[in-house]
Amino acid sequence: MLTGFNTDVEYAGVVYHVQTEDKGLRTPIILSLVYVGGAILASKRSPYDDLIARGFDQTVLANRLSRQHKLICAAVHAGRIEDLRRMSERGPAEHARQRAATAAEPIQNDAAPAEGSETRPQSNEDEQVQSDPPAFARWSPPDDDLLKVVLLDDIELRSGESATFRVMVTRAVAAGRQPAAKARVVVKTLGTSFRPASKTSATNADGLALVPVLLPYFETGRAAVLIQAYADGRLAELRRIILPAKPR
Questions:
Q1: How far apart are CA 231 and CA 96, in angstroms?
Q2: What is the pLDDT of residues 155-181, one digit of tens each?
Q3: Buried residues in 59-75 as b, exposed as e (16+ CB within 10 A)
């Protein structure tokens, strides 16, 4: 599994957070999410099972992941926000067409960065990527529930205050559910008036992780906490609203 990209793109005074990641060989999909104020505005899923079928090459996967991330960032930078809002969930036929088109692409061996954040001026390559029409789909939660993340405490989240998130991660097994040990847990704070931030932890043998977070201070706008759990090549997530600071 490759480490993905996280980039903030500002357009018309609004900061959009673009996240692109590899879901892993068990779920061979490159997933991109576009966040605005803690809410997921759009998503793009690109399967890469063709790579597995003809011989997996991590360099090729890294190139695809990087290109998809730049494509979406370029679309946001160009102000194509309404395109992101209007796009509906793609059907199976489009997924099949995308798989066929991807399989026909020649293998590229030029290296691409596979981890970290990407914030650099646009090059000629970026302009070419921007000309490609993005195929976005609105986010819909997974329906298999193979991986599940639960917040154990129903606490009020208030701007500028400290909070400790007790997170339980479980996986589905034949007998029901069991704790997901060593799952990676990421707690992200997203908002319209501050830069996104994240804190990472891991679950213990009981599937439990404790993540202390100082919530960012804001008086206006919207904000939320996004809690993500990664295990077995899968992603589970949940969101909680952060309330503005109380009037003084």
A1: 27
A2: 889 999 999 999 999 988 887 889 999
A3: ebbbbbbbbbbbbbbbb
For the CA atoms of 136, 92, 234, 104, the dihedral, rounded to the nearest 10 degrees, stands at -80
Give me the residues paired with residue 241 across strands. 224
Q: Which domains does the chain have, with CATH numbers?
A: 5-131 (no CATH), 147-241 (2.60.40.10)
The C-alpha atoms of residue 138 and residue 43 are separated, in whole angstroms, by: 5
pLDDT in tens, 71-97: 888 888 888 877 776 653 443 345 455
Contact 224, 215 (CB under 8 A): no
Kind plus residue range of the DSSP H or E element containing 211: strand 208-214
Report how far residue 75's alpha carbon sits from residue 72's, in angstroms, rounded to the nearest whole number: 5
Distance, in Å, from the CA atom of 220 to the CA atom of 207, rounded to the nearest integer, reads 36
DSSP lists the bridge partners of residue 176 as 173
